[in-house]
Amino acid sequence: MSKSGNAVAEDRIILTLYVAGANPSSERAIANIEQIRSRYLGERCHVRVVDVLAQPDVAVAARVMGTPTLVREQPLPERRIIGDLGDFAAVLKAIGASRAGDEN
Amino acid sequence: MSNNQNGVFITFEETPADVRKNLISLGWPIQEWEEQRKWAFVDVSPQPGDETIIAGDYDLGALLARIENAIRKVNAQRVTMDTVSAIFSQFSDKRIIRRELHRIASGLKQLGMTALMTAERLEEYGDIARYGVEEFVADNVIILRNVLEEEKRRRTIEILKFRGTSHKKGEFPFTISPSEGIVIIPLSAIELKQKSSDLRISSGNPDMDEMCGGGFFRDSIILVSGATGTGKTLMTTEFTAGGVNAGERCLLFSYEESRDQLFRNATGWGIDYETMEREGKLRVICTYPEVASLEDHLIDIKAQIEAFQPNRVAIDSLSALERISTFKSYREFVLGITSFIKDRETAGLFTSTTPALLGGTSITEAHISTITDSIIILRYVEIFGEMRRGLTVLKMRGSGHDKGIREFVIDGHGMHIGKQFRNIAGILSGNIIHVAGLDDDRIGGLFKDE
């Protein structure tokens, strides 16, 4: 959290979480990503949640198939994590942000 | 898919661009349909750059949402998923995929969709589908095979499961034609329900008509069997010319000789094929058996018959097609073509070449002898170091016929049937299998008597 202060623009992490309606796994995934964000990533991380039932066209554009899917939009390259995000270590590793300054 | 029922195509493997391209080659203007909102793609083909990490439990809710969305957009009644097996390359957990496929299947059912799923198989005669999961979510299962048999490829289709109705069992051959798509050849669907008429038609040869008790029947299948050079092509030529002279339309398929050869032969026997064809009474189609598979030949023959609407069809020779196929598909072909012609109440004359010069039977005979109405056997007869030609009407369904083996000669006016070979008639009465074995005895007997 303290690292958020010296984060430059390139350090920003933009995530999109696609869920399908309000079901237990959607809720779990939303809760998990919120925890990961607040506990490890802080302000430099921005999370957007998309309900594919409400916005199927967005799902088409993003080529999402499984839900929940977390897409790392920034930094590039794009990465996808499918599942309810219960495994924090794996999620952080996938986002590439387990440690500060770790580019990938 | 365009039968006034709009469709959604879910592609798991190929990109929509590829699918569009492939379907245009079959004459389906996908792009137009897309613009008219009759067709929609759901593109879930893998992207080269896709990197996916699995972290915890998931479902295919987004896929289902996209499918439902596409269905709503084009107001679809039909859904195709091609191929479901490819999901497993993106998601590894079989248990989850199985559950999700069920969910998608029941979702589609609720929407009243007719859905077609394709799945891969590893072996032609192994598990139904690659992951042992796909078939359980479906109401009906159809298996397509492309089997290598004696170095020939053969496509077959089998309905394995069809809930709520009875269906034909087993494999049926099929072929893919550029104009019609999948064409199935349903063999056991053939029924013996042809009408039978007692109307006689001329064989084109007065002597032969006499031997047959007044000519062939209007809707009969005649098999002419003999060794090479015994006069089979002559019989087909006379058969077609006889038809044309009686004002009928004749269609001749030749798989052994070229057009030029055929026309020259006909001229040699005093028959003017050229004029007949020019007048539209005759059509001669010459192809080599090797140019297509047997299934494609069958489709082609059927299409030609449909187009020309002949009263008579001759195939010279059926056995030439044998060499491009396997035993099984040849049998199916012979059955298919025979029943097709019979069904149309057309007269058909097929020739079959026997491998041995003296006597012998061919596979063709074994296959169709029971469904042909007449069998004419042409044989060489060796007498005093000379090869003469003999002929007999072995079978003539529904009519009395000359049962003798008669000598015949061929000259510039065609075939002339002469007297019976003496001392032979008694030996030959019986079935075809004995003909081969008895030939030697027959000639032996001749020597003693004279």
Describe the protein in words.
The complex is a heterodimer of chains A (104) and B (450). Chain A is α+β, with helices and mostly antiparallel strands and 104 residues long. Chain A is built from three helices and four strands. Chain A has helices spanning 24-41, 56-62, 88-95; strands at residues 13-19, 45-51, 69-74, 79-82. In chain A, a hairpin with a 4-residue loop joins strand 3 and strand 4. The longest helix of chain A is centred in the N-terminal third of the chain and has 18 residues, at 24-41. Chain A is globular, with a radius of gyration of 13 Å. The two termini of chain A are 19 Å apart. Residues 1-8 and 99-104 of chain A have low confidence and may be disordered. Chain B is of the alpha/beta class and 450 residues long. Chain B folds into two domains: 1-120, P-loop containing nucleotide triphosphate hydrolases (Rossmann fold), CATH 3.40.50; 200-444, Rossmann fold (3-Layer(aba) Sandwich), CATH 3.40.50. Chain B has 14 helices and 20 strands. Chain B has helices at residues 16-24, 30-35, 61-74, 87-90, 94-110, 206-211, 232-245, 259-268, 273-278, 294-308, 327-343, 363-368, 425-428, 432-449; strands spanning 7-11, 39-43, 52-54, 78-82, 114-117, 140-149, 152-162, 171-177, 181-184, 200-201, 216-217, 221-226, 250-254, 282-286, 312-316, 347-353, 374-383, 386-396, 406-411, 414-420. In chain B, the strands form four sheets. Chain B has a nine-stranded mixed beta sheet with strand order 14-13-15-16-12-17-18-19-20, with helices on both faces. Chain B has a four-stranded parallel beta sheet with strand order 2-1-4-5. In chain B, helix 10 runs parallel beside helix 11. The longest helix of chain B is centred in the C-terminal third of the chain and has 18 residues, at 432-449. Chain B is elongated and about 95 Å long. Mean pLDDT of chain B is 78; it is low at 424-438. The interface between A and B is medium-sized, with 36 and 26 residues. Strand 4 of chain A pairs parallel with strand 3 of chain B, so a sheet runs across the interface.
